[in-house]
């Protein structure tokens, strides 16, 4: 059962979305980043929900964050901004950052005064993250970074980047280090346009050509980067699952409203057996996904290992969101095929959920390794 603070946060998010939805639609159509909406989310405390108050956050718990993601999940571009800022950037900073690093970056990120990005994926290193080619060479009290990243959320709008680079290529995954890099260090970026969904969320390429980073901006320890990446992705997968739950909830709500209004053969289609089958399956996928998500979150909050549960939640919820979005289109019939109806956007937005932060195939390998004790691939080679 949710505590009052969670319910208040949900209500606040709903009011915000009622006001933001028309503007967001325009940003989606233009593939433009919704800066005014992001600033408003920062003012409302949405970008630092679980960050301690003394570091500029709202000081709420992880379940409050999930409640917010559920409410925002039907508006995936905005949900993506929340997830990247908190799951992929603030979480590792709070976990591995020094006190100096936290004081420098966390308040700015939590208040939304700057945005952050998680720089792991490369043109030749997607699911096989350990094969990344970005290098970091030690030069006195600095590191020199050379390489490039792709498919980076917030790539063109971030001021702070978590960049993963190899400091010792001979050690494989154990030779990867995470760096806190600022745009003013010389980072160049380029937008990636033409996405199927998440059209108001920024995605770009990041170029590191001789970028100099002080050694004080190593996050964690040298060689600890791959472990930081994996633990961060575990949290990210829970947040994606919560967002998927929200997307399913929005699709179901729109479908229920439609079937009560749409009439065929002299009566509302809500009374048709096969329409009710669609709705029942949508509800089942929604609730099963929510339970898996909260199971993973509960283990995380208790400090127990939760990699398996995070993968289970991410795999099921992301695939379920695609099934639910498909059914929403089917329920709407020909109307659902047009952008005038919101379910068309939900269908497009759902597709990315099975791809980023670990594809469905990768999640199955993680789950399989936990079940058998045998890895289908060696991420630490």
TrEMBL record:
Residues 117-211 form the Acyl-CoA oxidase/dehydrogenase middle domain. Residues 4-113 form the Acyl-CoA dehydrogenase/oxidase N-terminal domain. GO terms for biological process: branched-chain amino acid catabolic process. One of its GO terms (molecular function) is acyl-CoA dehydrogenase activity. Its cofactor is FAD. Signal peptide: none annotated. Residues 223-371 form the Acyl-CoA dehydrogenase/oxidase C-terminal domain. Keywords: Branched-chain amino acid catabolism, FAD, Flavoprotein, Oxidoreductase. SUPFAM superfamilies: Acyl-CoA dehydrogenase C-terminal domain-like, Acyl-CoA dehydrogenase NM domain-like. InterPro entries: Acyl-CoA_DH_CS, Acyl-CoA_Oxase/DH_mid-dom, Acyl-CoA_Oxase/DH_mid-dom_sf, AcylCo_DH-like_C, AcylCo_DH/oxidase_C, AcylCoA_DH/ox_N, AcylCoA_DH/ox_N_sf, AcylCoA_DH/oxidase_NM_dom_sf. Pathway: Amino-acid degradation; L-valine degradation. PANTHER family: ACYL-COA DEHYDROGENASE, ACYL-COA DEHYDROGENASE FADE28. Belongs to the acyl-CoA dehydrogenase family. This is Acyl-CoA dehydrogenase. The lineage of its organism: Bacteria, Thermotogati, Deinococcota, Deinococci, Thermales.
């Amino acid at each position: 059962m949710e505590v009052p603070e969670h319910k208040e946060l949900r209500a606040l998010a709903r009011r915000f979305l009622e006001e933001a939805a028309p503007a967001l639609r325009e940003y989606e159509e233009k593939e433009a980043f919704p800066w005014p909406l992001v600033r408003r989310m920062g003012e409302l405390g949405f970008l630092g929900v679980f960050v301690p108050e003394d570091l500029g956050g709202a000081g709420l718990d992880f379940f409050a964050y999930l409640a917010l993601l559920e409410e925002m999940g039907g508006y995936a571009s905005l949900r993506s901004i929340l997830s990247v800022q908190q799951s992929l950037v603030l979480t590792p900073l709070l976990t591995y950052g020094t006190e100096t690093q936290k004081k420098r970056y966390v308040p700015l990120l939590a208040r939304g005064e700057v945005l952050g990005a998680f720089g792991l994926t490369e043109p030749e290193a997607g699911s096989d993250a350990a094969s990344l080619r970005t290098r970091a060479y030690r030069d006195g009290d600095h590191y020199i970074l050379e390489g490039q990243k792709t498919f980076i959320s917030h790539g063109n709008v971030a001021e702070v980047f978590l960049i993963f680079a190899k400091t010792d290529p001979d050690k494989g995954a154990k030779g990867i280090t995470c760096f806190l890099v600022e745009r003013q260090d010389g980072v160049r970026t380029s937008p990636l346009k033409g996405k199927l969904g998440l059209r108001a969320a920024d995605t770009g390429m990041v170029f590191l050509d001789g970028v100099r980073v002080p050694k004080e901006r190593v996050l964690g320890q040298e060689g600890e980067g791959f472990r930081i990446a994996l633990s961060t992705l575990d949290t990210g997968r829970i947040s994606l699952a919560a967002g998927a739950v929200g997307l399913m909830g929005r699709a179901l709500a729109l479908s229920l409203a439609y079937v009560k209004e749409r009439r065929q053969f002299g009566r509302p289609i809500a009374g048709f057996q096969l329409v009710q089958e669609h709705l029942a399956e949508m509800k089942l996928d929604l609730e099963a996904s929510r339970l898996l998500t909260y199971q993973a979150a509960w283990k995380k909050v208790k400090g127990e290992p939760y990699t398996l549960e995070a993968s289970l939640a991410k795999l099921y919820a992301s695939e379920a969101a695609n099934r639910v979005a498909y059914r929403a289109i089917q329920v709407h019939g020909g109307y659902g095929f047009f952008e005038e109806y919101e379910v068309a956007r939900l269908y497009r937005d759902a597709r990315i959920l099975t791809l980023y932060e670990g594809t469905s195939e990768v999640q199955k390998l993680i789950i399989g390794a936990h079940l058998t004790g045998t890895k289908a691939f060696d991420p630490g080679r």
